[in-house]
Amino acid sequence: MSAPRSVVVVGAGVTGASVAYHAARAGAVVTVVEVAVPGTGVTGDSFAWIGAAGVRTGPAAELRRSATREYRRLEAELPGLPVTWSGSLSWGAADTSPQAGPGQEIVDTATAARLEPALRRPPDWAVWAPDDGSVDPVGVVNRMITGARSHSTTMRMGAPVTAIRRDAEGRACGVETAAGFCAGDTVVLAAGVATAALAAPLGVDVPVEPSPATLFRFSAPPGLVRTVVHTADFDLRQATPSSLHAAADSAERTLAAIRSTFRAPDVDLLRSRVAARPMPADGEPIIGPVPEVPGLYLAVTHSAVTLAAAVGRAVAREVVEGTTEAVLAGCRLDRF
Question: What are the recorded GO MF terms, alphabetically (predicted)?
Answer without folding.
Answer: oxidoreductase activity
